[in-house]
Here is the input.
Amino acid sequence: MSTDDPRILGLRKRRAQALEAGGAGRIARQHAKGKGTARERLALLFDANTFQELGMLATARCVDVDEHFAGDGVVVGFGLIHGRTVFAYAQDATVFGGALGEMHGRKICQVMDRAVESGAPIIGLIDSGGARIQEGVYGLGGYAEIFRRNALYSGIVPQISLLLGPCAGGAAYSPALTDLLVMVEGQSYMFLTGPEVIRAVTGEEVNAEQLGGGRMHISTSGLAHFVTQTEQNAISLARRLLGYLPSNHLENPLLSAPGVELPNAGEVLNNIVPLDPRQPYSMHAVIEHVVDAHSFLEVQERFARNAIVGLARLAGQPVGIVAQEPEMLAGALDIDASDKITRFVRFCDAFNIPLVTFVDTPGFLPGVDQEYHGIIRHGAKIVYAYSTATVPKLSIVTRKAYGGAYVVMSSKQLGADVTFAWPSAEIAVMGGEGAAAILYRKEIATAPDPKVARARYAEEYRERYLNPYTAAEGGFIDEVIEPRETRARLIGALIALRQKAIVPLARRHGNMPA
Here is the structure.
């Protein structure tokens, strides 16, 4: 066919119409909000000139309006990110506000199916008003098909959601089902019932940002894993995240060039834990001085801040980091921290990312509210996650590891492969003060000065039991090491365990605590 063949010209015209999306006016309004179009966002996400679109000419079949748009409000396809194949879909807010209809949903499902068949990650760029009212049950069915794939493909290929606009009603279940959710502050929001409905039903006054904005979801609900200032930052973050992840559950994460540690890391680590066990220190600083310099990417940074989870590298090897933060609630584990740790451990296990756990916790947070809301049930989730994880599991007790919290945090008995402890570690059923009050109750009560007696018995207990050597003698700790040795010992263990393989017991599935 020649270039002036009417059939070629007809194709070009259809493509040009599709590229116009909802028209110049709606594109201008999108830009006025500081937001890009679907194709502009995909161009930022993928390596230059590698994205190939699928279904560009698909059109809604049952919309009860005069307008019909090629592409039906969503751009789907595949391309390369850092040279690796990735599939993606981007909802187009200039067409019906990005609302989902039959063909729109079918296109998303198609690209999800192709991604799993190809063993490649899926990234969703979400900017939608929800289900398309004009299409009724067809739009609802489309969402159901997407949700089912989110669930069935979970743990097979990484699924990342970038929330770049609204996501209201039942539509919110899709990003909630994916592995990682990135929101944009002041631009994206997510809730099941909007401010107007809440005002009508309960009388509560709240706006969209307060109800379901990025700040709320990163700090209160825990639904968001990251919040960025701009959508460009969100897209850059998605590209960075993929660098820590394999393409699918059958592959290992890609090794990068061996990184270096921060300057004076050994000296910092050897002096970081105070002599006074009641004095806090920064576990973030510990992590930063152990892993490759500037490689730590914290997940859910502002939620349950007494727990720390994130991705990092050790000599170029991606690892998942789990820890407690002594500067928040003394590192005690509560309900939110338990849920945060559990999901991250299972995420890492699903995608062959070794786990490194730094332990400093005095136990589970005491309180009537915690007990009434099921701290036992939520703590049991951590037990379940670590017990069933088959990836290499390394743990380091830096200071306190008391009672049940010691057990659940990747202890040897839950299947940790290699366990280290610093000389500052305190591994026991409880702290010295509490133990003395129980073991020497009568002696303290009859002493001339009960306060002095309690302190003396507490110190005796601390010297006898609250040290890592008792645990090492019993084989619960593999080695007591200087803090400055931590990085080298972890790297050596990771190399030794790189080919670790465990075949889980045959069963349909376990019954994880709810």
